[in-house]
Amino acid sequence: QVQLVESGGGLVQSGGSLRLSCAASGPTFSTYVMGWFRQAPGKEREFVATISWSGRNTDYADSVKGRFTISRDNAKNTVYLQMNSLKPEDTAVYYCAATLYNGGPRVGDYKYWGQGTQVTVSS
């Protein structure tokens, strides 16, 4: 079992940047596929990005491609989400997620979830 704790959220102006971090507990972090999701008020939780256990393979939602970058440091048990050129529509609670199996864009693909960190982008 892995426990996930997100950090790095906050208030930023449109066009700004933030870097989210997700620290994972446990010695087997490098075996997990990791993902980032987000949920805006009144909306369903949606896929943002995913990264393979090695970090070689990544995938992004169309809405964030070219602006967001997912990465991981297995030595630090941490996955990151660098968010650039932020827009007001990026405002949401961002969640880190983990799975031992093939991670994908669906919420159901992931077994473990963090508590989330709020990102607010002002116009």
Show the helix and strand layout.
Elements: E1 4-7, E2 10-13, E3 18-24, E4 33-39, E5 46-51, E6 58-60, E7 68-73, E8 78-83, E9 92-99, E10 112-113, E11 117-122
Parallel strand pairs: 2-11
Antiparallel strand pairs: 1-3, 3-8, 4-5, 4-9, 5-6, 7-8, 9-10, 9-11
- The number of helical elements comes to 0
Q: Stretches where pLDDT falls below 50 for ≥5 residues?
A: none
- What general outline do the C-alpha atoms trace? globular
Distance between the termini: 40 Å
Described by strand count, sense and barrel closure, the largest sheet is: 7 strands, mixed
Strand content: over 45%
Cα-atom radius of gyration: 13 Å
**What does the average pLDDT come to?**
96
Structural class computed from helices and strand pairing:
mainly beta
Topology as a string of helices (H) and strands (E): EEEEEEEEEEE
The helix content is under 10%
Number of strands: 11
Describe this structure in words.
With 123 residues, the chain is an all-beta fold. The protein is 0% helix and 48% strand. The protein contains no helices and eleven strands. Strands 2, 4, 5, 6, 9, 10 and 11 form a seven-stranded mixed β-sheet that branches. The chain has a four-stranded antiparallel β-sheet with strand order 1-3-8-7, with no helix packed on it. Strand 4 and strand 5 form a beta hairpin. The radius of gyration is 13 Å and the shape is globular. It starts with a strand and ends with a strand. The model has no long low-confidence stretch (mean pLDDT 96).
